[in-house]
Amino acid sequence: MTNYIFLENYSSKIGRLGLSKNVFKFIGIKSIKDFRDVLSKDDKNSIHISFRNNVVIYKINLAVKKGTNLHSVKESLTNTINNNLLLVSDQFPVQTNIRLSEKENR
Fold first, then answer.
1. Distance between CA 52 and CA 37 in Å, rounded?
2. Residue 29 belongs to what H/E stretch?
3. What is the pLDDT of residues 45-72, one digit of tens each?
4. What percent of the chain has pLDDT above 90?
5. Greatest CA separation found in the chain?
6. How is the chain classified by DSSP, letter by letter?
7. What average pLDDT does the structure give for the chain?
8. pLDDT at 12
């Protein structure tokens, strides 16, 4: 199982630059914290990262407040993750699979 993904077209005399799964998980967690309708913001187990064919795959399971527009949250979260990844590197191929469930806000 791969724990690092290496940047394409980045090499130097020192070596290649790779980022670990933990970096991508951190970016995902920070991205989720921006959403007020998400109920499980601090649950690190709700985000799973994997690499396949040099693509970063996010699998995210979240609970949101009942009555929230699920499509809007998925689209906004995907865009936020992609924008935050651009801060780290020029480009990473990313696939996001987001599963949302509605819960009563307690």
1. 31
2. helix 21-32
3. 789 998 888 788 899 998 888 888 999 9
4. 13
5. 55
6. ---EEEEEEEE-SS-EEEEEHHHHHHHHHHHHTT-TTBS-TT-GGGEEEEEETTEEEEEEEEEEETT--HHHHHHHHHHHHHHHHHHH-S---EEEEEEEEEE---
7. 82
8. 65
